[in-house]
Protein 1
Amino acid sequence: MRPFLRATVISLLLLMFFFQDSVGEKQAEKPESLQSLFIQRDISAELKFLRDLITQQGMMLVEQQKVNTAQASELSALKNEMDHLKKENAGRTKVAFSAGIGPPLRILGPFNSETNLIYKKVLTNIGGAYNSYTGVFTAPVRGVYYIRFTGSEYGNTSNNIGVNLYKNEQYLLHLGENGSDGLAKHISSGVTLELEAGDVVYTRLPAHYVLWGGSDFRTTFSGFLIFPM
């Protein structure tokens, strides 16, 4: 029972006892006037009011206890669900990586043939599935992965910018932009892939294209495991 409600009920009970004592005293005495009769009636009305109020407060307390019990049950069920999810998640393989080309500041390319892009500046590599020496991500478990890459270029007046994405030896997509006007350009894309354990994903710079390299993470390669299968 809440302290405020408990104090209210106690106060009401004390008032009832006080009025009941007053009524008893009045009844023990012989009514001396019409005024004393009205006083007794007023006291009886007050007692009835107090009884009704105490009954109402008691009903409110019962309902509040029901609500408290229901809320406690809901909180207990939520805690059990969270504990279950924590245990389930603790046993899952965790995979996430993000890397950039890295310094020094420079224009990569153009090359006469398609060239693997190697992102040496690693920001995140949870699970160790990304190789910063080869630029290749290797799926450690079968599952659905999200792969994202970005590219940029600045100050070039003769070549376009672009990135090719591969899964194993399979060419998946090309992302490019006209970059020969000398203006700063940025490109980005992402895909969801179903990969088997051991599948590799990597990017390549198309022949005669350029990209900006540096430590500012304008040209990046990232990915993470959404869920295993």
Protein 2
Amino acid sequence: MPRLQKNDNFIDKTFTILADIVLKILPTSKEEKEAFYYYRDGMSAQSEGEYAEALENYYEALQLEEDPYDRSYILYNIGLIYGSNGEHTKALEYYHQSLELNNNLPQALNNIAVIYHYQGLKAIDTKKTQMSKKMFTKAAKYWKEAIILAPNNYIEAQNWLKTTGRNYNIE
């Protein structure tokens, strides 16, 4: 199960060693430990661009992980992979699943908004004005939610909301 890391740097090695020590000390079940190992290996593979391997590890982690909070991050990372591969429908599904388990993930809200914004731009390219307005409205909704959770982040989104007349000042 442990993944051989090809491009280990000092920080990655240190994190791995510390995580292994913490897992040995903490009173966690065998399944929880195994889920963490799969998750860690998935993150390592993902950072190296090995998306198929990362997905395999994340799916294994999902089978073992019971904690909703931890599952939300696994689902989020799966969404990241699908999004980066251009599979936006699948990415949206996984981002929404992650938010169902943990509604405090501004990064998932932001990524959903980015996808809807992209779809809005594509609709403009194909002269589908109504569809573009619909997608931009959805993007604005999710960016506003992300900004509420992380007001110092997503400056470009805040500027877009402001310049397009979508009020980003949320109370």
Protein 3
Amino acid sequence: MSVTNSLISSLRSSSLLGTKVVTPRSVVLSRRLLSTSYVPATKAALPSRANNVVPKTPAYEIVSSFYTAINSNDLSSARDLIAQDCVYEDLIFSSPFVGRTAILEFFGKFIDATSTDMQFVIDDISKEDSSAVGVSWHLEWKGKNFPFSKSCSFYRLEVIDGKKQIVYVRDCVEPAIKPGESVIAAVKGVAWLLRKFPQIADRF
């Protein structure tokens, strides 16, 4: 009986085979310490937000810089502003220019054909949105308005690898031929055809 009491007393007071017996309060404290000790490791494992920081340069400034680069025949600067898979849709062409290389080749041909005497002049540009920009512009030849060059463009931008770049452009250029009210007659005729043959719409 005395041996049993001695064993119980020893378990309560200190240790058995070097293992300390803890009270419920000690267990709670140990769990808290264990939890706290893992906090630094958890924070260290989290991905850095530095790579996800949105660049502070406003979208409209990037678009303005693009026009400046083209006006200066500085295609290397324009390259940095265009995404690798950017789509440039000029509505006077039957299909868009897809990819940075194709877009720069197009502007290179434009510059070769006109020289820096031809300049893009921004009439108005939207500044409120951080990822979409609207621009109204025209062309000037040695400071004088170039005919049939009034245009509107839409730009979409995204942050790619920490840089805000142009990913989509649509240009709507003033037509050289102005059909006027005959357009209404043409639209009316097309609408009549669609009502009679709705399957035609699938070919558009």
